From TrEMBL:
Domain PPM-type phosphatase: 49-371
Family annotation (InterPro entries): PP2C, PP2C_BS, PPM-type-like_dom_sf, PPM-type_phosphatase-like_dom
Record protein name field: protein-serine/threonine phosphatase
Family stated for the protein in its record: Belongs to the PP2C family.
Pfam families recorded: PP2C (PF00481)
Length: 381
């Protein structure tokens, strides 16, 4: 089970001055409205620093995929809080920029992971836009439920498209293209034995949203401690075992616990031959960010099979600090997050090398996201 974090899922706050310990006053115009308020975390235009790596490792073929999409969607503030006014801000009038990160670990082939790489963030924008219009101006809406609906519908849509049941936006391969540029997918995009995990994160200045389907993982380093933000979907997990058995499936011990002795995970996108026992529904979690957050790691099991959550967090945290102590802060603020950050990239690469040294036999895909807004090192030019 995931250990609960020591903050409320939807708590809110004001960014305080680090030196004086007092909140400062700031004027800012948002969507034509000028706010004079505390320096609200919701008014900060902030792009996280990140680095990523994807290695074939000791596998004969590469089946993983990784995607980073800065500024992928402006989140309506009312989806993050039930308050209609917050820090002097009308939550129905303000949206906050968010950033998308995803790791997809394919099996049986790379087709589904590659399709998830190209499609999931776009499908999520479609679902978020639909809900944004459906619940616009709604007071007291459950933000956690909003994200569960949007991301679950997104994953189900992509799973249908993989299996040939849905519509792919902009697809030109079929003569049955309609006037909207969507065409029915008459054929699956991969054989029925091909599938992929999906662990994704949507990050804004105030919150982290995590969705997981399969055994890739998201772990937060907060206050030098490792906080798992996802729970692996394994067939021997008590609730997953019960669900599979209730549906008439079998979990068999064959080189580890496997569904019908074949697949070593209980949820994935694709894997049509094992439905309805293998399902594409993600588990979704929304947490508030805190000043103690240091970094977030998303990775495939090529990393987690040989390193613990605690070890990965400690290595990532230390490599970020070591890089900055040696090099200072060299990122151009105007370009923040638009390309890989050298410190985060160095941390991701170091973790991948360490996983290989520890005997990882799988593809290895890692994203390291630096959650510190400011680091106290001398700027180098």
């Amino acid at each position: 089970m995931v250990e609960e974090l020591s903050v409320d899922v939807m708590d809110v706050g004001v960014v305080c001055d680090e030196v004086k310990g007092q909140a400062s006053v700031e004027q800012m115009e948002v969507h034509g409205t000028r706010y004079t308020s505390m320096k609200s975390i919701y008014l900060k235009d902030w792009v996280p620093l990140w680095g990523c790596i994807s290695l074939c490792g000791r596998r004969p073929e590469m089946e993983d995929a990784v995607v980073v999409v800065p500024r992928f969607f402006d989140i309506p503030l009312w989806t993050l809080t039930s308050d209609c006014m917050l820090d002097g801000i009308d939550t129905n009038k303000v949206s906050v920029p968010s950033h998308f990160f995803g790791v997809y670990d394919g099996h049986g082939g790379s087709q589904v992971a590659e399709y998830c790489h190209d499609r999931i963030h776009l499908a999520l924008v479609e679902e978020l836009s639909r809900l944004k219009e459906q619940f616009k101006g709604f007071i007291g809406y459950d933000g956690q439920k909003h994200w569960e609906i949007a991301i679950t519908d997104c994953f189900l849509k992509v799973d249908d498209e993989v299996g040939g049941k849905g519509h792919r936006e902009g697809c030109l391969e079929s003569p049955s293209e309609n006037s909207l540029g969507s065409s029915a997918i008459s054929d699956p995009i991969a054989p029925e034995t091909v599938g992929s995990t999906a662990v994704v994160s949507i990050i804004c200045s105030s919150h982290i949203i995590i969705a997981n389907c399969g055994d890739s993982r998201a772990v937060l380093c907060r206050g030098k401690q490792a906080w798992p933000l996802s729970v692996d979907h394994k067939p021997n997990r008590q609730d997953e075992y019960a669900r599979i058995e209730a549906a008439g499936g079998k979990v068999i011990q064959w080189n580890g616990y496997r569904v019908f002795g074949v697949l070593a995970m209980s949820r994935s996108i694709g894997d049509r031959y094992l439905k309805p026992w293998i399902i594409p529904e993600p588990e979704v979690r929304v947490i508030s960010r805190t000043k103690d957050d240091e970094c977030l790691i998303l990775a495939s099991d090529g990393l987690w099979d040989v390193m613990s959550n605690e070890e990965v967090c400690e290595v990532a945290r230390r490599r970020l600090l070591i890089w900055h102590k040696k090099n200072g802060i060299i990122s151009d603020p105007s370009q923040r997050g638009t390309a890989a950050d050298p410190a985060s990239q160095a941390a991701a690469e170091y973790l991948s090398k360490l996983a290989l040294q520890k005997g990882s036999k799988d593809n290895i895909t890692i994203i390291v996201i630096d959650l510190k807004a400011h680091r106290k090192f001398k700027t180098k030019t």
